[in-house]
Amino acid sequence: MHSSPFGALAHFKILPAISSGPAMALAVAARAPYAMVPLGTMTAITASTGSVAAGGLATGLVAIATAVAAPLIGRWADRAGQRFVLTLLTPINALALGALLLAALWGWDGPALWAACVGVGATAIPVGAFARARWVQLTTRPRDLAAAFSYESTVDELTFVLGPALVGIAASTATPAAPIALAAVLVALAGIPFALTAPRRGGTSAASRGPDDGGAAGANESAAGPGARAPRTPAQPVASIPAIMWAVAPAVLVMLCIGVFFGAVQAGTTERAALSGVPGQAGLVYALMGLTSAATALLVVMVPESVRLPTRVLLGGAGMAVFITVAAFAGSMGATAGALLATGAFLGPALVTAFSVAERRSPAGGIAVSMTSMQSGVTIGVAIGSAAGGALAASVGPEGGFGLGALASVVIGLTGLALLAAGRRRRGSALQDSGKP
Predict the structure, then answer these.
(1) For the whole model, what pTM was predicted?
(2) Cα-atom radius of gyration of the chain, to the nearest Å?
(3) 3-class secondary-structure state, position 349
(4) Where do the CATH 1.20.1250.20 domains begin and end in the chain?
(5) Per residue in 314-345, pLDDT tens?
(6) What pLDDT is recorded for position 148?
(7) CA–CA distance, 259 with 22 (Å, rounded to integer)
(8) Which of 236, 259, 286, 358 qualifies as a FRET site for 343, CA 20 to 30 Å off?
(9) Which ranges of 81-110 would DSSP assign to H, the alpha helix?
(10) Does pLDDT of 419 surpass 90?
(11) What pLDDT, on the 0 to 100 scale, is given for residue 368?
(12) Closest CA to 182 of 119, 104, 266, 116
């Protein structure tokens, strides 16, 4: 355990030794285009068709196709290896983005546009999920994996903030379709090298931790120590996609709620900025939450292993609920900004912990499916949160969007509470079976 933030950050020095600095940088660059695609699609298609409804439909089709395809791509990678799958799909995705670019430049609408959007989403590479799956294979100690997941969540947060900024810069300095062109170029220049450096086969780490209550102590803890789990062997059968998704359902539910939270809070912040007469400040104020979330995600390695993962989920959800409620009743953009800053301090750890829960609960041979299911969960959640939060913000004001975010946070906390209860029951059963008082 590290006793200070500086000690916690020092632990990240091990990551380039486990992977490599260039590989880590490549993974960051490879996910950048996918942070640009949602807003880039909305901007480009709205401008080309003159209809925000068409832009919204196009963006929704990309998101739905991405959410449906991601677990299937993950299962394929678990079976055939990341390198084979990614080297095949990444160039196709670049071509699909090229087709979407043509749709934007030539003003396509109807089935041709929809097909292009589905093609982009169905071949989108879940780079963050695959990067996490690589860390699972590479790490041999739970603390190293926790540091890796903290790092990856920080990168996700930063790309989530910077991706839309790149869209704005490209669209304002060139044409509304420029972000799609830039995304296609980045997929070719960074995505293809990311694919070529992928492991040939799927797998899990040497220190894999078997399914448990989502915390740091499962049924095998008494024999192997806290955080340990029975090693998996190649002879074990690979679970089906439904079985894997059921095993990691609590973690996916948390990610779904985080996605709803993102979309709803963005809608609430946008509405409050508009009512305050400063619509241009919405993005900047919302980005503050991402900055504190990224910072605290890095510091998750400071948390003692004795604080179980379900407890972290419970505390993260509770903190998010409290401070987003404060944001709902804030009377100005300044007060809203302060509340979102505080909210991000709990959001980052909740995000990191959700991936750790998924890794702990993932059955043998299912790590890529687990990680891609998490990404699908947040993608679907953002779509739900944006639509429902936008409707609530429009009908009852910004409090409606923030209120939906608070509800999603409560569900996160209740999920942590349920995992805690399940873990206690399992440990009680294990003690009874061992004959201990």
Answers:
(1) 0.73
(2) 21
(3) helix
(4) 19-207, 238-437
(5) 999 999 999 999 999 998 999 999 999 999 99
(6) 87
(7) 30
(8) 358
(9) 82-106
(10) yes
(11) 81
(12) 104
